[in-house]
Amino acid sequence: MGETEQRPTAGSRLGAQENAGISTLEHGQKPPMTPPGKLVSIKIQMLDDTQETFDIPQRAPGKVLHDAVCNHLNLVEGDYFGLEFPDHKKMMVWLDLLKPVMKQIRRPKHVVVKFVVKFFPPDHAQLQEELTRYLFALQVKQDLAQGRLTCNDTSTALLLSHIVQSEIGDFDETIDREHLAKNKYIPHQEALEDKIMEFHRNHMGQTPAESDFQLLEIARRLEMYGIRLHPAKDREGTKINLAVANTGILVFQGHTKINAFNWAKVRKLSFKRKRFLIKLRPDVNSSFQDTLEFLMASRDFCKSFWKICVEHHAFFRLFEEPKPKPKPVLFSRGSSFRFSGRTQKQVLDYVKEGGHKKVQFERKHSKIHSIRSLTAQPSEQHTEVPKQSARAYGDNNDAAAVQSCRQGKELKASTEDTGQHKSPSLKKSPKEGRKVDGAVVSTVEEEEEPAKDRMQQNRPQSQQPSTGSLTGSPHLSELSINSQGGPSVANMTLSPNLSPDAKQSSPLVSPLLNDPSCIRADDEEEVKRKRFPTEKAYFMAKEVATTERTYLKDLEVITSWFQSAVSKEDCMPETLKNLIFSNFEPLHKFHTGFLKEIEQRLVLWEGRSNAQIKGDYQRIGDVMLKNIQSMKQLTVHLRKHNEILMELENGIKNSRKLETFCRDFELQKVCYLPLNTFLLRPLHRLMHYKQIMERLCKHYPPSHIDFRDSRAALAEISEMVAQLHGNMIKMENFQKLHELKKDLIGMDNLVIPGREFIRLGSLSKLSGKGLQQRMFFLFNDILLYTSRGLTASNQFKVHGHLPLYGMTMEESEEEWGVPHCLTLRGQHQSIVVAASTRAEMDKWTEDIQMAIDLAEKSSGPAPELLASSPPDNKSPDETTVDQESEDDLSASRTSLERQSPHRGNTTVHVCWHRNTSVSMIDFSVAVEKILSLSVTVPPYLLD
Fold first, then answer.
1. DSSP conformation letters of 53-110
2. Is the model more confident about 853 or about 356?
3. pLDDT over 90 (residue 328)
4. Which of 70, 231, 364, 593 might form a disulfide with 21, Cβ 3.0–4.6 angstroms?
5. Quick one: which H or E segment has residue 653?
6. Residue 921: other Cβ atoms inside 10 A
């Protein structure tokens, strides 16, 4: 009688093993006893904007509150999240997990603590749990609403379309307009509603879990994803913003990133009053060292940002939690702050090693979605979001439950009713459910292959009693406190009581949406019947569709965005306009229809219509054969692309206005690659078709119904590729020369007839001051060596060249005592270079020898090749001021002096920073391996 009735959590009703999140204690250790005392109520605002109240002891550290929230959500990967609150100066700070909560939150009655994402990993695929990805999706939704995640209108509409798909299901114009009218995701949403609905139309059949996955896939590629700006000033007093990410510390001017300091380059972070200091590691070939200084608004603001940086570095870079430093006997110097919790590696290892039980179940985002998405495929990726209501229904009360489901009213149940009634399972599984407080809980699983069933049945089902008492109306899930991860009942009671202003039911967890009695038996059979196929051929067809969608967007950059911009500016000759758009518009029109055919075939393949009775639809070869044969009529347009590329570059060369226009267009986010790269996409797409058909023919046995069409399609596309391969090689070389021209200073005539690019990369050149890093560029006639300049665009200045005609090469490690060393002897000078590894040396040796042989076979260097050489031919021992200026000035650089309009993300800059090299063959291989950003193929199905 005197015992408190314990109610099952959402996870326990679904058969999930109760856990206390992730403990940072070593194996065998017990958590420290929580000091007894008066309980204090803390209000926590969840990511779905609902509020929960947690009662904790006054002396409890922040970790107790953080663990309580994670247990409340049954969240395993809780280390990615944090608690944020306004301090006494109204500045948002993170809750320190080691310090007592009451020493940080002075007036808990007047403070609402926010549970938000704290650490954003570089790839959301690292998030193992579906619940974690769902919470990340809620964070993205919140950042869009608050204006933190800024992007162009197209990206915004695409993000919102995935959010709408996850909430209301498949596209319906009437329901979409009603939903968008009631829900304002961003300010001024009305202007984007048509575009949101247009994108939503393409997400047919996408489950909520898939929508979350696609939402995070798009969001993580945005520059402002996970970024929290902190205002500051540099040494010159220029207003900037600092931010910290998984890669390091970022510098923004407005919302444009102008610099980044990778963790590998940072030696020390510190602050002195209002000054935030970044000490960088010296370069390999320099004894100088950078110390960057930024001025922030106050000491507290500066210290808060320093703490965030320390936590991000520890979480993403360390293998385990740093151990606390021993306390000094007499005097303490500096801050004693340290990162508390598990690192990302520890979290990944914990989840991968099976430290929890994975349960599959359906989630219902809203009433509309629960009715419309019964035919959608439940996600098979880890655990879905536990949004089951805490209230249970009686087994004999089906009629009342169905009636309430129709009326849309919430059932009220007291704690006494909870103990008397049983919670029915959504779906019977092969495993028996376990009892929790008198309620039989069954796991919700799909009927999979027998082997998979046996594997799941052999998993241990440890049962752990809950020690937390619950009152009030739950929102995301009930609070569950595991006996291993939290304080004992004798010392602590966590009761999440709802505040008066938060008693309305959360839209995410209405009991009506999760009541199994609302799901008919035929609906359950429909869910079981309409599962995604698992054949390898299906995923190849899916790859065609997703990459085709991306390719169509690439074409739209030319046919839509570039054409629209050109029409507004009188900067391009009419002949050039007609040449470009008359050859690209037919391609866009054809591939739009091609994509529709592929998507229709996939719908039939996935079984989302009554086409099963019509017979043969589970193949893709016939669609590919039909369209590849039609595509051959477009060969005349594809042959013109080489001419388009050359004419466009000539127009840019002869017209300053057109050059400025194209440069400004490339800086827009819609043009996410150099403009001439999009001109190469149609020819590269043919290579991708050929690869897919080769894999498909290799997969099918000769007796397969689709083998003949697939083989015929492969023959057709192979013929097209062979016809256009010469044009593609010329265009790739021409495009690469123009790309390098933008990165080089002192080589005006780099692009000339007959010159071919072979390799570029970083080598160390031996000079009077020792080995110094230089960028080398190998062509079929000349070898250039450069160093990175101190200009605003970080271009590379040409310091010298060696003609390949008459050059000799020999290894000279013993002569100079430098590993991986080569001596290159030209007709007038010699240089000594060293590679970083033996493999790099072998690559350079092979390519240089090949280029020398080709030069020898020719009749000697052409006059125009020699005329393009830089004027300053320096001997190997010359070391002038401009050569070494980079080292001499490195200590005085500031953040703004390094800004680049292209943000230093070209191939040359990547090779410089990574001290490696790439060849033209590498670029060709990379093109063949390109996949769509949205393609999701199971790893075990890839070749």
1. EEEEETT-BHHHHHHHHHHHTT-S-GGGEEEEEE-TTS-EEEPPSSSBHHHH-S-GGG
2. 853
3. no
4. 70
5. helix 641-654
6. 11
Q: Residue with structure tokens 């949403």?
A: 189
| C-alpha to C-alpha distance for 934 and 928, rounded to whole angstroms | 17
Amino acid at 91: M
Q: How far is CA 83 from the centre of its chain?
A: 23
CB 115 within 8 A of CB 45: yes
How far apart, in whole angstroms, are the C-alpha atoms of residue 85 and residue 88?
Answer: 10
Confidence of residue 238 (pLDDT cuts 50, 70, 90): confident
Using CA atoms, how far residue 373 sits from 290, 527, 602, in Å, is 57, 9, 18
Give the closest residue to 122 by CA, choosing from 7, 217, 241, 18: 217
pLDDT digits (tens, 9 = 90+) for 687-731: 999 999 999 999 999 999 889 999 999 999 999 999 998 989 999
- Contacts (Cβ under 8 Å, ≥6 apart) of 835: 763, 764, 820, 822, 841, 844
Within the chain, what is the greatest distance between any pair of CA atoms? 104
Lookup: tokens for 439? 């309620």
DSSP 482: B
Q: Which tokens go with 896?
A: 């703004």
Specify whether the backbone of 857 is left (phi greater than 0), alpha (psi in -120 to 50) or beta: alpha
Task: For residue range 531-545, list pLDDT tens digits in order.
Answer: 455 578 888 898 999
With H, G, I as helix, E, B as strand and everything else as coil, classify residue 919: strand
The tokens describing 664, both together, are 């400004």
- Residue 336 C-alpha from the chain's centroid: 34
Spatial separation of the C-alpha atoms in residues 169 and 179, rounded to whole Å: 11
Q: What is the mean pLDDT of residues 353-367?
A: 52
Nearest 5°: phi and psi at 299? Answer: -65, -40
pTM (2 decimals)? 0.45
Cβ(361)–Cβ(378) under 8 Å?
A: yes
CA distances from 545 to 201, 533, 938 (A): 15, 15, 16
Region for 817 from its dihedrals, namely left if φ exceeds 0, alpha if ψ lies in -120 to 50, beta otherwise: left
Place of tokens 């200009």: 791
The residues, ordered by sequence, that sit 6+ positions from 646 with a Cβ below 8 Å of its Cβ are 734
H-helix segments, 459-573: 511-514, 521-529, 536-556, 563-568
pLDDT of residue 466: 35
Rounded to the nearest angstrom, the gap between the alpha carbon of residue 893 and the centroid of all alpha carbons in its chain is: 31
The count of other CB atoms within 10 Å of the CB of residue 126 is: 15
Cross-strand bridge partners of residue 622: none
The C-alpha angle with vertex 370 and arms to 368 and 376, in degrees rounded to 5, equals: 110
Report pLDDT digits (tens) over 595-641.
Answer: 999 998 888 887 754 444 444 678 889 999 999 999 999 999 999 99
Domains of the chain, start order: 10-119+355-528 (3.10.20.90), 124-219 (1.20.80.10), 230-323+334-351 (2.30.29.30), 536-739 (1.20.900.10), 754-928 (2.30.29.30)
Percent of the chain with pLDDT over 70: 66
b/e code 272-287 from CB counts within 10 Å (16+ = b): eebebebebebbebbe
CB 293 within 8 A of CB 235: yes
